[in-house]
Amino acid sequence: MSVAQSTTGAGAVGVPVDTGWETVIGLEVHVQLRTRTKMFCRCENRFGAEPNDLVCPVCLGYPGTLPVTNQRAVDLAIRLALALGCEVRRRSVFARKNYFYPDLPKGYQISQYDQPLAEGGGVPLPSGNTVRIHRLHLEEDAGKLLHEVPGGGPLPGRSLVDFNRCGVPLVEIVTEPEIGSPADAQAYLQVLHQVLLYTGASDGNMEEGSLRCDANLSLRPAGETALGTKTEVKNLNSFRHVAKALEYERERQLHVLTSGGRVEQETRSFEPATGVTRSLRSKEEAHDYRYFPEPDLPTVVLSGERIERQANRLPELPWTKSARFRDAYGLRSEEAALLSGSVALATYYERAVAAHPQGKRTIANWVMTELLRELKERSIDVEQAIAPERLAAVVALVDSGELSTTAAKDVLAEAWDSSETPDQIADRLGLRQVRDDSRLEAWADEAIAANEKAVTEYRGGRQQALGYLVGQIMRASRGSAEPRAAQEILRRKLADGGQ
Ligand code: ADP
Ligand code: MG
Ligand code: ZN
Hints:
Layout: H1 3-10, E1 21-32, H2 71-83, E2 87-88, E3 91-92, E4 94-98, E5 108-112, E6 118-119, E7 122-124, E8 130-140, E9 144-146, E10 160-162, E11 169-175, H3 182-199, E12 211-221, E13 231-236, H4 239-258, E14 266-271, E15 276-282, E16 292-293, E17 300-301, H5 304-312, H6 318-329, H7 333-339, H8 343-355, H9 360-378, H10 388-399, H11 405-417, H12 422-428, H13 437-450, H14 452-459, H15 464-476, H16 483-496
Parallel strand pairs: 13-14
Antiparallel strand pairs: 1-11, 1-12, 2-6, 3-17, 4-5, 4-16, 6-8, 7-8, 8-11, 9-10, 12-13, 14-15
Helix pairs in contact: 1-4, 2-5, 3-4, 6-7, 8-10, 10-11, 13-15, 13-16, 14-15, 15-16
The protein binds adenosine-5'-diphosphate, magnesium ion and zinc ion (ZN).
């Protein structure tokens, strides 16, 4: 296939393009842990403070200060590692990663190198593919460079440094180089994001940088086992950006390779506005980090009991919950995945089902459409939604034929902000469907009397005429007639020949 052809096909996420080249992706994800204080000092770990308000001699790297390991960060990292199926090492070692940058006052970052906190593991994706994890280690975040005055204007030719983020606890999670598409890379990040929230390891707030991703991609001839030369796109902070950057890189490398060139190993940045990646530095400019064990910190030694304590605090994980929803409630995989997207939504759904067990499938539909739409419209979380039992009561009225779907939407809208029961609302609004024979018969007689032409047509064998007559009953009853019962009565009357 030519490059031009592949360009049109590659845009669609998840559609493999038969170019003769195989895509290989590996992700390095940085996650800020949800601790009260920083990794090695007692400064607050909080986003949004005034620049340089959350600093001390330790995180500013003053000579003579000593770091102290935040044990809460270690525990959260253990819990996250266990959730991801990693093997947690009983002994892991902090190391200095040396490089110069203005946001790094110590001149080195404390990280872990050859003895990380955890190794192995993996997560299943909704697609059925699994992403294997290579390692998970603890480290500290760096500060942030600002190129304009916060709340003010640009600063031509100058930069400011905010050290508040310096020393914020991070976990870095590195996958094996075997993710096969940008779509799977995005799906992995979404599952990982769910795990962060499920376990409480991080607030997962991507706008605030709590989850950042470096995306590595290479191509190799299909069937080849050796890896091709990769490029790394740095610092992506949204799911869409990761997919877009990888799609761009895949196309760019494909173009280089199919025109006989060689991919240069380099680090690139992504421009969201244009969807383009640009070279930041090539391999020749790569850092030599001169890693060595951090002399100021003891080895992290974990007892079996300590690891066990975190294992006991693991919740049911997203993929397990999703599979259970599918099997227990008869949902399709995509529905189960959507409803287990957050613990709050999953809990909501299960509480509603508990209130109306026969409605497990109908409730799923109502939650995925009506509820989510209303949450979006009101810009609120599921915790602020109408009580799940009340939603279940509305759905129960539909399931029993008391309310049409349209009428039920009106009842739900009223029930959201009132204290009346859905039953009371249905009665007050006169929305209950009429199945009572005497009233339906009266409407049917009226419709038959007033529509001679349709009656004759129906008797002459034209079935559609019956639909027209049902429509007349719906009109006369202002939508309250139960359509199936109305149709039955019409059929009977017209068959009798009676009026
Ligand atoms: P580096 O030393 O450049 O950071 P690593 O070997 O530590 O490279 O891998 C970093 C990330 O890049 C990992 O997620 C890994 O899976 C991925 N990776 C490594 N080599 C390749 C490759 N040839 N193609 C795609 N991804 C790769
Ligand atoms: Mg790297
Ligand atoms: Zn500090």
